[in-house]
UniProtKB/TrEMBL annotation:
This is PilZ domain-containing protein. It comes from the Bacteria.
Length: 113
């Protein structure tokens, strides 16, 4: 596991299952890294930059974290090449936690460098 500092926020790398969408949570993805300020969402179908979306993050213990965010960057990759790309998907800046902020923060605090 590695950590990465992005604009003053330490992002911890950990693959977590997630669902996302503009209105509903219909698309499946994974987080590549995350902090309480944002995350890299690995997907072959990223939304456009500036899009507001909802994200459900599934923690290893089964808890769910619901968050809203804005797409800061996006890189579309054909689905068959996602495993070969190191930055496919989109960067999400979290704008509001609907639920689970303390769960997510506590989970990130348990991860080592």
């Amino acid at each position: 596991m590695t950590t990465r500092v992005v604009r003053g926020q330490e992002r911890k790398s950990r693959r977590l299952k997630a669902r996302f969408g503009v209105e509903d949570l219909s698309r499946i993805a994974f987080l590549g890294n995350a902090s309480v300020a944002g995350a890299w969402v690995i997907t072959g179908q990223p939304e456009r930059v500036g899009t507001l979306l909802r994200l459900c993050i599934y923690l290893p213990d089964g808890e769910e974290v619901l968050v809203r965010g804005r797409v800061q960057w996006a890189k579309k990759i054909p689905p068959n090449l996602i495993r070969l790309s190191k930055n496919a998907g989109m960067g999400i800046k979290f704008t509001r936690f609907e639920s689970g902020l303390s769960l997510f923060s506590d989970y990130l605090a348990t991860l080592r460098f």
